C-alpha cells in the first residue's frame, strides 16, 4: 500500500498543489517544502531558513516546511491535509476489502449452482475459505445425528488435523466446532491434548454449518500464527458456512431421493418378474398390455390358437400308492420337465390342473406338434430313469385342437383371474381324453391339420371322425406318430399307407378287406394298439353288423 | 515513464474502488485519471492518451460501447487498451463488446485481483 507522502500531496500538479503554491506566493514566496530527506518538493528555497517546522503523520516525520515565520502555518495546514488523505485512504482500503468479500460471496454462490455432489460442495467451500481467509490448514466436518458418526468430506492445506482423532472424539468437537457457535479460539490445549491438532497450530477459527436448527457440521481453519484471524474473517467464514450448508443439505436430499427412487424401481421390477411366473407374460401381451398392473377386468382378446392338454394315464391308481407328499413331488417333477419343452416351442402354460397341463400355442400349430413330440420324448427319458429305480413306467396322453379362443380377465373387483373361454378349449380337452380310447398317445383334430403348413416333418394316421358327447358337429381325429420311440416309429412309418387305406375300407364298410389289412399291420407291428382297437371293432361289425345309420363315425358315449 | 490509467464510471464508489485497487501502481509512476461520463472520457482519451482505460458500459450521455467504438473504430487509437465493465446479467453484451473492439470484458462486481493483474500486464509492470 502506498504510504501517504508529502510528495503525493503537494509534489504533483493537482488541486492541493496549486492552492498551496498560491498560498505561498501570497506569503511573499518566503517558504518552501521539503520531504523527510530534505529533497525539495515545492517552492523556492532561500539560502538559510529562518524557521523549520516538521510535518508529522502518526508521530512520523514526513517532511519539512522551511522559511520565515509563516512556515508554521503551512506546516499545520499540510499536517491537516495529510491526515485527511490518510483517513481517506484507510476508508478506501476498508471499502475495497468489503468489495472483495462481496466478490467472493458472489462467485461462491455461482460455483454452488454448478454441482449437486455434497463432497464436491464441501471441497469447494473449504478451498474458497482458505483462499479468502489465509490459513495453513482446514477441514470440514459433518455430523450424522442418526448414525452418530462424524465425517470429514473435505480437507486442505498442510496436515495439521489428525482425522483419526477427530472422528473418535465427537465429544470434544461438540464443544468446539459442533457447538452451533462460530468463533476464533486461541486456547487449544484440549484439542492438542486429544491429538486432534498439531502443536504448531496457534489459532483456530470455525463457523457452524446449520440447517434450520440442526447442526450439520462446521468449517474449521487452523493457523500457525497467534493473531492470524480477525473479526472480519469470522464474518466471512460464517457467510460461507451459511451458503454451503443449505447447498450440502439440498445435495444430500437429492441423493437420498435418487436412491429411494432407484430402490422403488428395483422393487417394481422384482414384482413384475414374479408376476410373470404366475400369470404368463404372453397372456398379458396378447391383451395388448405390458405388465400385470396394466390389466383390468374385462380386458379380452380373441385369437386363433392351438390348445394342448396333457395328462398322466392312470394317475388315480398311481397316486393311491403314494403319500400326498410323494404325489405332489411326483406331479411337480413331471411338470418341471414338460414346462421347458412347451416354452421353447413358443407356447405358454396357461394352467396346471392336478396331473394335467393346459398349454396355449398362439402362433403356429406346428409349434404345438413339435412341443408334443418333445414332451413325449421327455416322458421316454423319465421312464428310463424310473426303470433303473425299479419304478413302473408312466404314460402320458396329449391332445390338441386349433380354433378361436378368447383370453380375458374375468372375476370381480377383488378377485380376478386370467381365463380362457371357448369351445376350442373343451374340444382340445376331449381330444386328449380320446387318447385313452384310441390307445394313442398323441392326437390332434383335422382343424389343427388344416392350419398346419403343408411342408412339415410330421407323419399322420387318420382315425376317422367322432361325434363328441353333447355336440352336433363331427370332428376328424388324427394321430401323429412322431412321438413314438425309434423302433415303434419305424414300424408305424412302414405301415402308414396300409393303415390309412385300412381306415378308408373301414369307413366304406368293407370290413373283410379292412380286417385283412389290419391283421397284416399287426403282424408287422404287434405293439400297434390303435390298429388293434380298429381290428376289434372290425371283427365286431363283421359279427353283429353295423348300427343303423352308421356313418363310420364313432359315437362317444362318455366324455 | 509516466503511464496513465483512465477510470470511467458514473458511480463514484466504483471509480474510487478501482483507484484503490491499483494504488500500488502509483509508486511505479502511474497517473490516475477519472471521468464520470462518456463524453468527458472521450475528451480525456484524446488529450491525455492513457495506456489503459476501464470503461463502464451503462452510463448517461454516451455509454461505454459507443466510447469504445469511437476510440477503436473511428479514431483508430489502437494502443489504448480498453477494459469494458458491466453489471452481471448483461453477458450478451460480450459479443457486442467484441464488435466495438474492446480488448477485455469484465463483469461487476469486479474481482480486484484480476483488475490489478491485468493492469500490471498491460503497463508492463513486475
CATH class of the largest domain in chain A: Alpha Beta
Number of helices of chain B: 5
CATH architecture of the largest domain in chain A: 2-Layer Sandwich
β-strand number of chain B = 5
Q: What profile does the largest beta sheet of chain B have?
A: 5 strands, parallel
| Residues in helix, % of chain B | 40-55%
**Helix-and-strand structural type of chain B:** alpha/beta
CATH class call of chain B: Alpha Beta
CATH H level of the largest domain in chain A: which superfamily? Nucleotide cyclase, GGDEF domain
Q: Which regions of chain B contain 5 or more consecutive residues with pLDDT less than 50?
A: none
Distance between the termini of chain B: 14 Å
Strand content of chain A: 15-25%
Question: What is the mean pLDDT of chain A?
Answer: 87
* Stretches with pLDDT under 50, minimum 5 residues of chain A: none
> Judging from the principal axes of the Cα atoms, what is the shape of chain A?
rod-shaped
Strand order of the largest sheet of chain B: 2-1-3-4-5
Class from helix and strand fractions of chain A: alpha+beta
Basic shape of chain B:
globular
Q: What is the alpha-carbon Rg of chain A in Å?
A: 52 Å
Count of runs of 4 or more consecutive helical residues of chain A: 18
Secondary-structure map:
The complex is a heterodimer of chains A (559) and B (126).
Chain A: H1 6-11, H2 15-26, E1 31-35, E2 40-43, E3 51-57, E4 60-67, H3 71-113, H4 118-132, E5 137-144, E6 149-157, H5 163-168, H6 170-175, E7 183-185, H7 189-193, E8 203-211, E9 214-223, H8 231-278, H9 281-286, E10 300-312, H10 315-320, H11 324-343, E11 348-353, E12 356-361, H12 365-388, E13 396-412, E14 415-421, H13 423-438, E15 442-445, H14 446-451, E16 460-467, E17 474-480, H15 486-494, H16 496-507, H17 511-524, H18 529-544, E18 553-555
Chain B: E1 3-8, H1 12-21, E2 30-35, H2 38-48, E3 52-56, H3 64-74, E4 81-87, H4 93-99, E5 104-108, H5 112-123
Parallel strand pairs in B: 1-2, 1-3, 3-4, 4-5
Helix pairs in contact in B: 2-3
Amino acid at each position: 500500500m502506498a504510504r501517504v507522502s508529502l510528495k503525493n500531496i503537494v509534489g504533483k500538479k493537482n488541486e492541493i498543489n496549486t492552492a498551496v503554491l498560491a498560498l505561498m506566493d501570497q506569503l511573499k514566496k518566503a517558504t518552501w517544502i521539503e520531504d523527510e530527506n530534505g529533497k525539495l518538493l515545492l517552492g523556492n528555497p532561500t539560502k538559510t531558513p529562518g524557521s523549520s517546522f516538521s510535518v508529522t503523520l502518526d508521530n512520523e516525520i514526513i517532511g519539512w516546511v522551511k522559511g520565515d515565520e509563516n512556515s508554521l502555518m503551512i506546516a499545520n495546514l499540510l499536517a491537516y491535509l495529510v491526515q485527511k488523505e490518510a483517513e481517506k485512504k484507510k476508508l478506501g482500503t476498508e471499502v475495497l476489502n468489503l468489495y472483495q468479500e462481496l466478490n467472493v460471496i458472489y462467485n461462491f454462490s455461482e460455483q454452488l449452482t454448478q454441482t449437486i455432489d455434497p463432497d464436491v460442495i464441501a471441497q469447494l467451500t473449504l478451498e474458497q475459505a482458505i483462499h479468502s481467509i489465509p490459513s495453513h490448514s482446514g477441514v470440514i466436518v459433518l455430523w450424522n445425528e442418526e448414525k452418530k458418526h462424524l465425517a470429514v468430506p473435505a480437507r486442505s492445506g498442510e496436515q495439521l488435523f489428525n482425522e483419526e482423532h477427530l472422528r473418535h472424539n465427537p465429544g470434544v468437537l461438540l464443544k468446539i466446532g459442533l457447538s452451533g457457535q462460530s468463533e476464533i479460539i486461541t486456547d487449544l490445549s484440549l484439542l492438542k491434548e486429544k491429538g486432534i491438532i498439531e502443536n504448531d497450530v496457534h489459532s483456530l477459527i470455525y463457523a457452524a454449518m446449520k440447517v434450520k436448527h440442526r447442526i450439520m457440521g462446521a468449517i474449521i481453519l487452523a493457523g500457525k500464527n497467534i493473531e492470524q484471524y480477525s473479526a472480519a474473517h469470522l464474518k466471512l467464514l460464517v457467510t460461507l458456512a451459511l451458503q454451503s450448508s443449505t447447498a450440502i443439505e439440498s445435495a444430500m436430499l437429492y441423493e437420498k431421493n435418487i436412491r429411494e427412487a432407484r430402490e422403488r424401481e428395483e422393487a417394481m421390477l422384482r414384482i413384475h418378474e414374479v408376476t410373470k411366473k404366475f400369470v404368463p407374460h404372453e397372456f398379458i401381451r396378447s391383451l395388448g398390455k405390458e405388465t400385470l398392473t396394466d390389466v383390468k377386468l374385462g380386458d379380452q382378446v380373441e385369437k386363433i390358437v392351438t390348445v394342448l392338454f396333457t395328462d398322466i394315464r392312470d394317475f388315480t391308481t398311481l397316486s393311491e400308492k403314494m403319500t400326498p407328499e410323494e404325489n405332489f413331488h411326483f406331479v411337480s417333477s413331471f411338470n418341471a420337465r414338460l414346462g421347458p419343452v412347451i416354452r421353447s416351442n413358443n407356447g405358454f402354460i396357461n394352467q396346471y390342473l392336478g396331473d394335467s397341463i393346459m398349454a396355449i400355442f398362439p402362433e403356429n400349430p406346428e409349434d404345438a406338434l413339435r412341443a408334443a413330440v418333445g414332451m413325449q420324448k421327455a416322458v421316454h427319458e423319465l421312464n428310463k430313469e424310473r426303470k433303473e429305480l425299479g419304478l413302473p413306467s408312466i404314460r402320458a396322453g396329449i391332445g390338441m385342437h386349433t380354433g378361436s379362443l378368447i383370453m380375458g380377465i374375468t372375476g370381480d373387483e377383488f378377485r380376478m383371474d386370467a381365463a380362457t373361454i371357448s369351445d376350442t378349449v373343451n374340444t382340445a380337452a376331449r381330444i386328449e381324453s380320446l387318447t385313452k380310447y384310441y390307445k394313442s398317445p398323441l392326437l390332434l383334430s383335422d382343424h389343427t391339420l388344416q392350419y398346419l403348413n403343408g411342408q412339415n416333418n410330421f407323419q399322420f394316421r387318420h382315425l376317422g371322425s367322432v361325434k363328441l358327447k353333447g355336440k352336433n358337429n363331427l370332428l376328424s381325429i388324427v394321430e401323429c406318430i412322431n412321438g413314438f420311440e425309434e423302433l415303434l416309429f419305424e414300424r408305424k412309418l412302414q405301415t402308414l399307407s396300409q393303415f390309412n387305406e385300412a381306415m378308408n375300407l373301414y369307413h366304406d364298410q368293407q370290413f373283410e378287406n379292412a380286417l385283412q389289412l389290419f391283421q397284416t399291420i399287426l403282424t408287422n407291428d404287434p405293439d400297434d394298439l390303435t390298429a388293434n382297437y380298429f381290428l376289434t371293432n372290425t371283427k365286431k361289425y363283421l359279427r353283429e353288423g353295423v348300427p343303423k345309420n352308421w356313418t363310420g363315425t364313432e359315437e362317444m358315449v362318455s366324455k | 515513464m509516466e503511464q496513465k490509467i483512465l477510470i470511467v464510471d458514473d458511480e463514484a464508489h466504483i471509480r474510487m474502488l478501482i483507484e484503490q485497487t491499483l494504488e500500488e501502481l502509483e509508486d511505479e509512476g502511474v497517473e490516475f485519471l477519472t471521468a464520470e461520463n462518456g463524453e468527458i472520457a472521450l475528451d480525456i482519451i484524446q488529450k491525455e492518451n492513457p495506456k489503459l482505460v476501464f470503461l463502464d458500459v451503462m452510463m448517461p450521455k454516451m455509454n461505454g460501447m459507443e466510447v469504445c467504438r469511437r476510440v477503436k473504430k473511428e479514431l483508430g487509437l489502437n494502443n489504448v487498451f480498453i477494459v469494458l465493465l458491466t453489471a452481471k446479467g448483461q453477458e450478451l453484451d460480450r459479443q457486442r463488446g467484441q464488435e466495438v473492439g474492446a480488448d477485455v470484458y469484465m463483469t461487476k462486481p469486479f474481482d480486484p485481483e484480476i483488475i490489478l493483474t491485468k493492469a500490471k500486464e498491460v503497463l508492463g509492470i513486475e
